[in-house]
Design brief:
The chain has a seven-stranded antiparallel beta sheet with strand order 6-7-8-9-10-11-12, with helices on one face. The chain has three helices and twelve strands. The protein has one domain. The protein has 261 residues and is α+β, with helices and mostly antiparallel strands. A hairpin with a 5-residue loop joins strand 6 and strand 7. Helix 2 packs across helix 3.
Length: 261
């Protein structure tokens, strides 16, 4: 006995139902984080803290070259969904760090969102949210990265374009640096919404770590398979996956479990 094919309309309804179910599942993490994760919903960005957290080694006692990648929850309710990432670098014998990051409000009025500065602490809170270290390099490997950072940052193509979702944003910039500087082998947190953004017409690219590849439609949906990132599924910018190299689950809202750094 043959089974009749489902009408096209029924098949589409089922696909839409599965997709809606996945979206609901992916949203559970951010909703729970909003409810129980300590996200500050009543802070004022004008008075929020940017104080140093002591995570960056003191240059006076650490003369070696150092590169640190930081992540911190974004301000307000968006912190349940995403983090802001940046890179801080100190050449050997330097007295201070230089921060490389993209800051959205700087792009208002056609300005450049790209910020390269040594005036703010490398490990400063991001509008009151304490950062953590995603990765840290020292010595010769850090020196190799530092030598390439200025040119890689200058080549970022979206310095005057900023979109919170799906990108390009601050995490798109750090992912760009990762692809441009293979020595970083940078696996960004799954909460770094925008790291998977690819421009229109480009659907396949190296993963930010340079240790694998990703397929992405504008950073909205996609798949990453890489040695550093593991297996990641991106649905509307929310990422779930498995890190096999440093065993961990990656869940929307929660990030890595357990978290590195």
């Amino acid at each position: 006995m043959t089974i009749p094919a489902l009408p096209a309309a029924t098949a589409l309804v089922r696909v839409a139902g599965w997709l809606a179910g996945l979206v609901v599942l992916f949203l559970c993490g951010p909703v729970l984080t909003l409810a129980f994760g300590g996200i500050d919903l009543h802070g004022d960005w004008r008075t929020a803290s940017h104080r140093s957290t002591g995570l960056a080694p003191d240059p006076a006692h650490h003369p070696e070259a150092i590169v640190q990648v930081y992540a911190s929850r974004t301000f307000g309710w968006r912190g349940a969904f995403a983090v802001h990432t940046w890179i801080a670098a100190k050449p050997a014998d330097a007295s201070r760090y230089t921060r490389y990051e993209v800051i959205g409000w700087r792009a208002l009025g056609g300005g450049s969102a790209l910020s390269i500065s040594s005036t703010q602490a490398a490990d400063a809170e991001w509008y009151g949210a304490r950062p953590w270290i995603v990765d840290e390099l020292t010595g010769p490997r850090a020196e190799a990265v530092i030598a390439k950072l200025p040119a890689a940052a200058a080549s970022y193509p979206w310095a005057r374009t900023y979109r919170v979702w799906p990108g390009p944003n601050s995490n798109t910039f750090v992912a760009w640096l990762g692809r441009a500087i293979p020595e970083l082998e940078l696996a960004l947190p799954p909460l770094a919404v925008g790291k998977d953004y690819l421009p229109p017409g480009e659907f396949v690219a190296p993963a930010p770590s340079g240790t694998g590849y990703q397929v992405s439609i504008g950073g909205i949906v996609g798949l990453t398979v890489a040695r550093a990132e593991g297996l990641e599924v991106n649905l509307f910018g929310l990422v779930a996956g498995i890190d096999f190299r440093h065993p961990a689950l990656e869940l929307p809202g929660f990030g890595r479990i357990p978290r590195r750094g």
